[in-house]
Backbone:
């Protein structure tokens, strides 16, 4: 495998545009300089459009989990309760983080199945400080109903935390309209930046609720907000400077394309994958519901009968296409294709073509071309 | 200021070699792939030489503070005590982190003055789990006595944590010989990599002492060790992939130069700065002691009479040389020059020359050239 000749189709890290990669090779600057402050300020402004929010935005040097840690740790002290909702790996991560600092009341649904808002509301207890959910559950390819859960949070006066890590900038994600107090994304998803930055938006309501000296010292949301508001804008600890260069460049690329146009492109790419899968008799893994839908940023499909995970993904990798398998209990049962960021029509067609090649080789399908044809219909429409 | 024509002489982030910057522009890879695992394994092995240790090494995606947070948070639970020693900003950070998760017993010395081992030992109480100190206090340019404090830690059966962030790979730093259970560095210092990675070495003794589900969720040392030991080597959360590319390249550069040769070069550069300062009647800020010395990675000097911080550093910056000021209560009182990583003789001479230019312009010195001459004597010897 030569990494410069490999197409990365996993749901993060995603393919990064060459101009964004090149932006990282500028020399270092002092992180306390006006030059760094200007980059940070520019990113904060453009990210507001990505998040569809007027809330405060901070950038942390760490993965998306660092942002989840900051949100939960800042709100949940030793005697506090948080309601967490799970139907996949990352929802379960919220439960773990809540239990690290306080107590999680976890409302669990089978992986890949829809939330039931009634069951969630009935689990609310007196004094629950926050509700945390994952909007786009990367592990199973489902979109969960943030708008509906947001109403429950507001009714019970709980801070509403949404992991939008693989969603923001790909799926529709209306931070302000849905009443999301803390929204989180990671650089390596729809922003199409290398991994290493978490972006967190924080409402005034959430800021007022943040506890002092709570949670992780490094992932301290209050400290990050305080530093971001300085002139020049700063971070409390030394930031990953090259990733800020990359983020700024990637945000300018997204602005050039148009934030709405980008989301529409991503939606169409995912639809093409789904149509191709249907044409190839490959089943979707997640279950659609009244308030839940298939993700536009990651498509999770069952591995067809007649082929193993190893043969499917291993075979594709030998052809230069990297797709993801299932996590935890879904290992060997599903495979996942990401369609975020700067993923192109050509990337999708090459991926489907290669998938067909491998399926045909193993005798799972007899005729190649039906998947690509179905995808083309969507992409060309 | 054009950042591509500016010489960064601050004590981190430091100048990064072009081949290290270029290494970051490779495409992304999956962080769960054998390809990533091979990079991580290679880095872990070479870092052992940098740290002079056979201990386990993990790399975290975050600043050096993330590593400090992981060390203290992993050991210090709600009812635990940690002894912290301070004579500058970063020692005080240990105190803050200790108080975040448990209770710090802080032994404080005036900023820039030597530790008194007797006073430190007499502050030890029953049940103190760990002692934390900074080896090279970046804020004041002093080297603190790790060997001596290590003996106290061992005698009292406390885990010994040393912040070697601006030290390891620059000053002499003997992790195993000095009995350092947890040593920490950051990528943007002597490793000459962009900021964004923390490297932590952990002894078996420290691993046995780490508490479960303790401290920060993101900066969880136990989780990082567990993932690093997997085959292929992994990180618990998505790592900052380009910084791993850069780290690997920088470690290979250091290996080519020779780890000992690099430390000797850095020592000589700092000595040149000190000799130049003496020739220019500029006073060192830190106070040398029986067990304390001037740092070889950052030289902290008093701002001479007759010039302000603004004029000194602002004037140098206009000439394309960025040096640091003082932090917190030392703002306006000292300035600092870093000599880590791939800093060259030419960089030092250009810096001193520019310093002389500014001092002469403000009438602080009457004749230029004496600083450069003094530095050359050291560099040419």
Residues:
């Amino acid at each position: 495998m030569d990494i410069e000749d490999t197409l990365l189709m996993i749901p993060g890290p995603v393919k990064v545009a060459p101009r964004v990669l090149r932006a990282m090779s500028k020399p270092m600057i002092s992180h306390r300089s006006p030059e760094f402050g200007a980059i940070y300020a520019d990113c904060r402004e453009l990210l507001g459009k990505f998040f569809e929010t007027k809330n405060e935005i901070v950038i942390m040097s760490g993965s998306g989990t660092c942002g989840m840690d900051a949100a939960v740790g800042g709100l949940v002290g030793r005697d506090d309760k948080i309601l967490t909702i799970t139907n996949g790996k990352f929802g379960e991560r919220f439960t773990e983080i809540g239990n690290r600092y306080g107590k999680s009341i976890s409302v669990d649904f089978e992986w890949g199945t829809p939330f039931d808002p009634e069951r969630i509301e009935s689990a609310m207890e007196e004094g629950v400080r926050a509700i945390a959910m994952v909007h786009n559950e990367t592990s199973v390819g489902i979109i969960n109903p943030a708008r509906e859960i947001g109403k429950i949070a507001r009714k019970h006066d709980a801070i509403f935390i949404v992991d939008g890590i693989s969603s923001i900038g790909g799926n529709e994600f209306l931070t302000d309209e849905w009443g999301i107090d803390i929204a989180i994304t990671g650089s390596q998803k729809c922003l199409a930046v290398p991994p290493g930055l978490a972006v967190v938006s924080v409402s005034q309501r959430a800021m007022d609720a943040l506890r002092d000296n709570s949670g992780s010292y490094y992932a301290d949301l209050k400290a990050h907000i305080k530093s971001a508001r300085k002139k020049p804008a700063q971070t409390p600890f030394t930031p990953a400077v090259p990733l800020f260069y990359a983020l700024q460049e990637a945000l300018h690329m997204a602005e050039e394309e148009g934030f709405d146009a980008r989301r529409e492109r991503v939606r169409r790419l995912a639809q093409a994958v789904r149509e191709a899968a249907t044409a190839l008799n490959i089943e979707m893994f997640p279950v659609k519901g009244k308030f839940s839908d298939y993700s536009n940023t990651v498509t999770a499909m069952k591995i067809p009968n007649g082929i193993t995970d190893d043969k499917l993904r291993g075979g594709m990798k030998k052809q230069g296409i990297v797709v993801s398998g299932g996590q935890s209990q879904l290992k060997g049962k599903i495979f996942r294709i990401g369609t975020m960021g700067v993923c192109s029509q050509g990337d999708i067609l090459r991926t489907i073509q290669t998938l067909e090649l491998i399926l045909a080789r193993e005798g799972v399908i007899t005729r190649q071309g039906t998947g690509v044809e179905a995808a083309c219909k969507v992409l060309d429409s």
